[in-house]
Specification:
It is a single chain. The chain has a four-stranded antiparallel beta sheet, with no helix packed on it. By secondary structure, it is of the alpha+beta class. Strand 5 and strand 6 form a beta hairpin. It is globular. The chain is built from three helices and six strands; from the N terminus they run βαββαβαββ.
């Protein structure tokens, strides 16, 4: 699942809310792919609903968040470039983490 977000950061309170939101994503097991793009691997879409509910409740006022679930196959077709150099996308975890 990808979490894309655009959060206001003009005031100190807005920056605080944006930081809390990013920290919440990390606590849910998301990894930062880009500054406002985080990813988390789930074995199936049904496993995402609990985290989707948590994220929905934590969206800061005036913020915009988009969640996108893709299949393993779709993820494997992603192309990643750093400058002019093509990089391999991250691979899915070898085993699921239980906590």
């Amino acid at each position: 699942m990808f979490a894309f977000f655009d959060l206001p950061v003009k005031t100190a309170e807005q920056r605080k809310r944006a930081t809390r939101f990013r920290n919440m994503l990390r606590q849910l097991g998301f990894s930062q792919a880009q500054y406002s793009v985080y990813t988390q691997y789930y074995g199936c879409e049904a496993n995402t609903e609990k985290h989707r509910k948590i994220i929905r409740k934590c969206v800061p006022p005036e913020g915009e968040v988009r969640l996108l679930h893709v299949t393993d196959r779709q993820f494997s077709l992603m192309e990643v470039y750093a400058g002019e150099i093509e990089k391999e996308p991250e691979s899915r975890p070898q085993q699921l983490l239980l906590f």
